[in-house]
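Long-time lurker, first post. I've been practising inverse folding by hand and with some scripts of my own, and I keep getting stuck on stretches where the structure tokens seem ambiguous. Below is the full token string for one chain I'm working on. Before anyone asks, I'm not after the true native sequence, just a reasonable design that respects the backbone. If someone could post their per-position residues I'd love to compare against what I wrote down in my notebook.
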């Protein structure tokens, strides 16, 4: 069978298109979001458990867990190729005594550092009353925010766990 130059070029173009198209296609198995959700929620539970018993909250921590993504700059419509991460935010109300928030945050920090997490940065807000300590390990990010004791002010500890980024895949419920 003899092929014309045009037929060869056409077939080569089809093969290139199929190859390139296959490289950009995302299937639900390409997304690690379900895995990251389980890991993030488990890590948040472990960090909450590091709060010493004498500071244990009188009410269960308020925990929010959801997939997150940045707004797609090209289209408002989500696509399977969008970059997403899983985030868990836990709000803890330790026993109300002076330095409870700081002591709880120190216990969590010690657990993270003992497990090989690196403290990456810290920031203060609310005129120095709130401090956010950040930790990183294997593309995971944890932030622990605590408040300095102040007469008549309520003390809390906030934990945020952010997974590495992955593709959105078939998670249609995730929007920016």
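-- Answer (accepted) --
I ran through it position by position. Result:
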């Amino acid at each position: 069978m003899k092929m014309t130059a045009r037929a060869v070029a056409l077939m080569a173009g089809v093969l290139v298109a199929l190859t390139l198209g296959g490289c950009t296609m995302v299937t639900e198995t390409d997304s690690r979001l379900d895995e990251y959700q389980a890991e993030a929620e488990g890590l948040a539970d472990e960090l909450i458990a590091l709060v010493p018993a004498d500071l244990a909250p009188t009410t269960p921590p308020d925990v929010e867990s959801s997939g997150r993504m940045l707004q797609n700059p090209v289209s408002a419509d989500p696509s399977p190729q969008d970059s997403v991460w899983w985030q868990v935010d836990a709000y803890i109300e330790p026993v109300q005594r002076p330095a409870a928030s700081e002591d709880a945050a120190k216990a969590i920090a010690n657990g993270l550092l003992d497990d090989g997490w690196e403290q990456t940065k810290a920031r203060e807000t609310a005129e120095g009353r709130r401090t956010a300590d950040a930790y990183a390990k294997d593309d995971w990010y944890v932030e622990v925010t605590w408040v300095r004791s102040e007469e008549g002010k309520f003390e809390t500890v906030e934990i945020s766990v952010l997974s590495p980024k992955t593709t959105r895949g078939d998670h249609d419920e995730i929007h920016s």
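A couple of notes from the structure itself: The helical segments are 5-24, 33-49, 100-114. The chain is about 30% helix and 30% strand. Happy to go over any region you disagree with.
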